[in-house]
Amino acid sequence: MVERRIAVQIDDLTVAYNYKPVLWDIDLAIPEGVLMAIVGPNGAGKSTLMKSILGIVEPLAGSVRIFGKSYDKQRSIVAYVPQKGSVDWDFPTTVLDVVMMGTYGSLGWIKRPGKKEKKNSLEALEKVGMLSLKGRQISQLSGGQQQRVFLARALVQNAEVYFMDEPFQGVDATTEIAIINILKELRKRNKTVIVVHHDLQTVPEYFDWVTFLNVKKIATGPVKEIFNDDNLTLTYGINYKTSIIK
Fold it and tell me: Distance from first CA to last CA of the chain, Å, rounded?
């Protein structure tokens, strides 16, 4: 059996807001080619962990490596889908323009997207079922449609590591199924996909790897091994039964 490379390595990561620890001494090694959920209660630091990895939030201590190098050096192989609430949906731009923004990282700031980038962007929109709305303003889209557009923008980057902050939030069942099928397809291609997730019922169905987080790392590993009553109880502070949430 070939040993997997470590896609994301986090050592001794601590983050605080106004001197209050939000993440405390996090050590985490995420293997290449997994589809991983980060789960935990509200205020557990899930989004903060993701933002710290991406350099959006400055940690007090610790280090992050993407395939052994700093995020700044690996930016071109990383894609990020933020929470919908953090995006200015009134910004006057079309669906296609938003997706084509995903090509800027590979082009640099001098070159403009050309025919190849447009073709790739249209193909990404087709994958997420949004091709027919390519000319629509993003402000005119439903929540599920907006999420599909941001997923297409991530896909067009052709990254090695994908970070997604609650991509299923506020979407309908059809969109959720479409998104998870795309994420599973990325995993088949040996991409690493890391998702902040809140629906415990779908963890065993959607993911093969999970990290339990509540300011501290509670546990991390294959879903089949660590998605159990003990870790759920340690993370959420109440007695959980996996039989109830399945």
Answer: 31
